[in-house]
Amino acid sequence: MKKVAFGPKRSNGGNLGTADDWVTARERPMEPVKRLTIDIPESLHRRVKTACAIEDLVMADVVREMLDQRFPEPKPKSLPLVVETEAQKHDEA
Predict the structure, then answer these.
(1) Which residue would you say has higher pLDDT here, 33 or 81?
(2) I need a labelling partner for 36 at 20 to 30 A (CA). Which of 3, 14, 59, 63 fits?
(3) Which DSSP string corresponds to 2-37?
(4) Is 59 within 8 Å of 48 (Cβ atoms)?
(5) What is d(CA 21, CA 15) in angstroms, rounded to the nearest whole number?
(6) pTM reported for the whole predicted model
(7) 75 contacts: CB under 8 Å, gap ≥ 6
(8) Could you tell me where the beta strands, DSSP code E, fall in the chain?
């Protein structure tokens, strides 16, 4: 059996504590966030993780981008353009 020696525990920089502390310490988004947990086949996870590692991408960022593309934010309804004619201007005067 191979023996592995462990060195001293590495410092995590700011001692952020729990995983939730680490998540909340990241860059703050413009709006509150919600966590989404999904189950995917192991083979798909491996393919996505491999591709992201090769391209130096974060899996969560890729998934967010895909969801945003599939479900774009609705565009506000534009108000009808009202153009006043010279005759209408004259009638009001």
Answers:
(1) 33
(2) 14
(3) ------PPPP-SS---SHHHHHHHSPPPSS------
(4) yes
(5) 10
(6) 0.51
(7) none
(8) none
